[in-house]
Amino acid sequence: MENSYQYTFVTIWKVRASLQEVWHLMYDQEKWPEWWKGVVKAETLREGDKNDLGKKMRFTWKSFLPYELTFDVESINVQAPFVMEGIAFGELEGEGCWNFKEEDGVTTLQYNWNVNTTKKWMNNLAPVLKPLFKWNHDVVMRWGAKGLAKKLNAELILS
Predict the structure, then answer these.
(1) What gap in Å lies between CA 25 and CA 151, rounded to an integer?
(2) Staple 117 to which of 71, 110, 122, 158, CB 3.0 to 4.6 Å?
(3) How large is the average pLDDT for residues 11-17?
(4) Is residue 1 a part of any domain in this protein?
(5) What SS3 class is residue 145?
(6) How far apart are alpha carbons 97 and 87 in whole angstroms?
(7) Rounded distance, CA 85 to CA 83, Å?
(8) What's the pLDDT score for residue 105?
């Protein structure tokens, strides 16, 4: 993509809750706006097959900075309760993958997000603002970790 900027994020959450509880809450993406500050909207555009492959969701996100991002995610790999992976299209394009594991009553979620921006103004300002865009992403992810723990009435383990 001409004049786009790539972002690679690795986010890790640890919560004292069962893998199944965490998986069910994360898997029900349409309800993310109920507990994840920053998720303005999450809607199903197309149902997937019996394993939810091909399911297409549209998300709108907002953080401290005065802009929103809207993009679609198509599910390409679901291995309940361990992996949710999708390809993003729209104002962000790339791949995201959630991995889940439980050990000693603590569930760890790792999110790998490799995307390019498609908004012209973001790409034009990225040479200067890329660190601020990364900070903004981290804020939204912290909100998600806190919201997940609160919704599960579980302890969030900070590293």
Answers:
(1) 9
(2) 122
(3) 98
(4) no
(5) helix
(6) 9
(7) 6
(8) 96
Are the C-beta atoms of 40 and 61 separated by less than 8 Å? yes
| Strand order from edge to edge, sheet including 68-79 | 6-15, 106-117, 92-103, 83-90, 68-79, 56-62, 39-46
Q: Are the C-beta atoms of 123 and 1 separated by less than 8 Å?
A: no
What percentage of the chain carries pLDDT values higher than 90?
94
Torsion angle in degrees (nearest 10) through CA of 18, 22, 25, 29: -160
Q: What is the pLDDT of residues 38-95, one digit of tens each?
A: 999 999 999 999 999 999 999 999 998 989 999 999 999 999 999 999 999 999 999 9
Q: At 3, is the pLDDT very low, low, confident or very high (cuts 50, 70, 90)?
A: low
- Give the CATH number of the domain where residue 62 resides: 3.30.530.20
Q: Where are the alpha helices (DSSP H) in the chain?
A: 19-27, 32-35, 120-152
What lies within 8 Å, CB to CB, of 122 at 6+ separation is: 5, 67, 129, 133
Phi, psi (5° rounding) for residue 87? -110, 130
Cα of 122 vs its chain's centroid, Å: 19
Domain count, the chain: 1
17 within domain boundaries: no
